[in-house]
Amino acid sequence: MPPKRKAAAQTAAEADAEGWDSDDMGALSDQEMYDDLKKNFSIADKKRRTIQRADAASFIFKHDNLDQPLKPDAASRPLWVNDDGKIIMESFNPLFEEAQDFLINIAEPVSRVSRMHEYTLTLHSLFAAVSVGHSSKEIIDRLERYSKVTLGSNVVAFIKKATSSFGKAKIVLKKTLSYIESDDPAILQRLLRDPTVASCRADNTDGLIQEAAPKIGVMAIPGTKMAAGATQIAQTAAAEPQAPVDMIASLREEDDDEDVAKVHSFQIRSESREEVIKRCQQIGLPLTEEYDFNNDEVNANLDIDLKPHAQIRYYQEKALSKMFSNSRARSGIIVLPCGAGKTLVGITAACGVKKSVIVLCTSAMSVVQWRSEFIKWSNINPDDIACFTAESKAVFKGNAGILITTYAMITSVRNRSYDSEKAMDFIRSREWGLLIADEVHVVPAKMFKQVTYAVASHAKLGLTATLLREDDKIGDLNFLVGPKLYEANWQELSEQGHIAKVQCAEVWCQMTPEFYTEWLRSPPSSPKNDIISSLNPNKFQACQFLIDYHEKRGDKIIVFSDNVFALQKYALKLHKAYIYGGTPQNERMRILENFQHNPEVNTIFLSKIGDTSLDLPEATCLIQVSAHYGSRRQEAQRLGRILRAKRRNDEGFNAFFYSLVSKDTDEMAYASRRQAFLVDQGYAFKVITRLEGLNQRTDLAFHTPQERRELLMEICLAKDADVEKEKIEGDAFGSRFANGGRAKKGAGARRTAGTLSELSGGQQMSYIEYNKSRNSEIKGKGVKNAFLRKLNSSTANAKKKAAGGG
DNA sequence: CAGAGAGGAA
DNA sequence: GAAACTCCTCTCTG
């Protein structure tokens, strides 16, 4: 305790010396303050996580302030503010809209189901609030106004503490190097006394660098009703002259002697950015990262503007106004559901900054898409867009331009080809105005973290539909990219017709006795078990039934199966096209094209390739037969596949999302975990235990016990063969495939399938037939099955039609 | 264009 | 709770 006290006293003394209100910092050291905050405010979070599993409701009643008396007019106020920072809001309250607009700025949405929304105040959310222009006082006053109960002292103290220290230091980029900058040298001295920060310092001088401070201007977001946007922002600025939008300016007023026009800085190593940002936040001096692009004379301007027809939707505007509020570009993350126009947000941001932009995507395919979207929505000269992928190593010729590439390209640790190395040098050697990170939720992966160090960018914009990971790395994004600036409310968007309305259902399928016996016999959550529950004949029939039903309604249907074995079984048995990782590129294209244009092809089967990496045409119905454990992201991503349906504005139009679940298996538990995110977004999952009319059908697959037994046998043969094959390979081909790794397994599986069909004999006709087509497909040559032939000819027809018509 | 090698997701 | 496992990407090489 004594050393701590000493430290605290020192800090307080320093604070006094530096002319701050020592009350602001309390009697606590930075570390203590942080610990204190964490203690009080992360409890709720932990509780929620642990308790939620046992009981859906009890966590709500822990740690609350139920003993607080309601204000007399509580009924007209929309929300409760809990002393731990949790906020519960009624969505039916007249003040809801107004309160929601405010809450989204200052708190994290946790759950937005139909009647009640839950938010929580966090350090990050409050930092973001301040950086967007809310003052500590305004936050407290407005919360008090909306709250049915008087704000607790904890919450008030938390808000004050979190917001008071904000905006005093910035992280900036000069000549591709990172600097910590402040108007007040004492702040920097204070940061440098922190061992972590000090260890990240790059320049060896003792003193600080001094420069003249830049001016602040006003900007409009392009694509919004330009003028209107500009005046609005100007008005906001005028209406709240002392709002911390001008934190820097107001600080300057405080020590308004001769230091007025000076900023001070020291340099840090680029690779330590994350660490420094994190540390500064921990010690209560969060760094703002803003790019004053209007006054950037060093980097060339890029000639880019939105085309006149590009109209920004209101929520896109809202999101962008967060990013650009004080005429600077602020780093952060924008969360929009798929189909809500993330790309356009990115492009608009690029048009706002008008400097060189680098776009990072997860796949080479979306690189191409980004490029074409840029050309579609903006007047950019196509020569100024360069794609850097395995295929094209172009860089732009001018001084400024847009470079679109993949994460893998930037982070590749292996030796590069000559061209690739040259392009990388180009990327590393220059300053980027804006870095757009598409699918930003992948960035926290160890490898991808590097991109934020390797690419020197003044501002970073992260885009994603699902800010979710099943590991605990999602918080790293706060330091790697920035805080979450905006998160759209899915339900709201679908009510307004920006994305489709979706009916979600979980279909419970009873296991057949044989399948269940076999399921029980194999070890829990083994691959074989997965397949058994995915290929449960009852599920298969339910799937077939639903496909029939929806094809008759004129829906376009996508069926997802994570398990490739099951996928192929389903698709071949039902004579549908399917795509998985091993499907060659041109075949993928052909199938997707047919799905899109050919009225005969209304259903396709996809492995998890369809989650992210395919540019799927519009579909209106989605059936999930097997999935990856409890991945909420996958569920959300899949749902997203039907949100962009063009028919969404038709009267009473609904898209459908079915999860087929085998009863009494692991799938049940996984399904409910998977749905958690969507439920929080306000989707209601209906449970269907019986499909009307299914039992009357005799034409469905696996109708007879004989067929079902055969299916089960195939599964067992295939799976047990897998196990066997591993052994055999270990012996006979051990040396040959010794270093083969994954490739070995793939090759092995194919070969074994071939042998098996011979082994299994004549009574397994269907099996042989399947295997042939499967192999031919995998090899991409040999005899095509009837369906593929048909598909080919229909492609030809479609092409003829297109040629004839156009 | 196949195969190798490396990485991610969960 | 960790670790295996599968599936799928990417890039570079021959």
Topology, pairings included?
Blueprint: H1 2-17, H2 22-25, H3 30-54, H4 58-61, E1 79-81, E2 86-90, H5 96-106, E3 108-112, E4 116-120, H6 123-132, H7 136-146, H8 153-164, E5 169-174, E6 177-182, H9 185-193, H10 195-199, E7 209-212, H11 226-239, H12 247-254, E8 262-268, H13 273-282, E9 287-288, E10 290-291, H14 314-324, E11 329-330, E12 332-335, H15 342-353, E13 357-361, H16 364-377, E14 385-388, E15 402-406, H17 407-411, H18 418-429, E16 432-437, H19 446-449, H20 451-454, E17 457-464, H21 477-480, E18 484-487, H22 490-495, E19 502-509, H23 513-521, H24 527-534, H25 537-553, E20 557-561, H26 564-574, E21 577-579, H27 585-597, E22 603-606, H28 609-612, E23 621-626, H29 632-640, E24 655-662, H30 666-680, E25 685-688, H31 705-732, H32 742-759, H33 765-779, H34 786-805
Parallel strand pairs: 5-9, 12-17, 12-18, 13-15, 13-16, 14-15, 16-17, 19-24, 19-25, 20-22, 20-23, 21-22, 23-24
Antiparallel strand pairs: 1-2, 2-4, 3-4, 5-6, 6-8, 7-8, 10-11
Helix pairs in contact: 7-8, 14-15, 23-24, 24-31, 27-34, 29-30, 31-32, 32-33
The structure holds a DNA duplex (10 and 14 nucleotides).
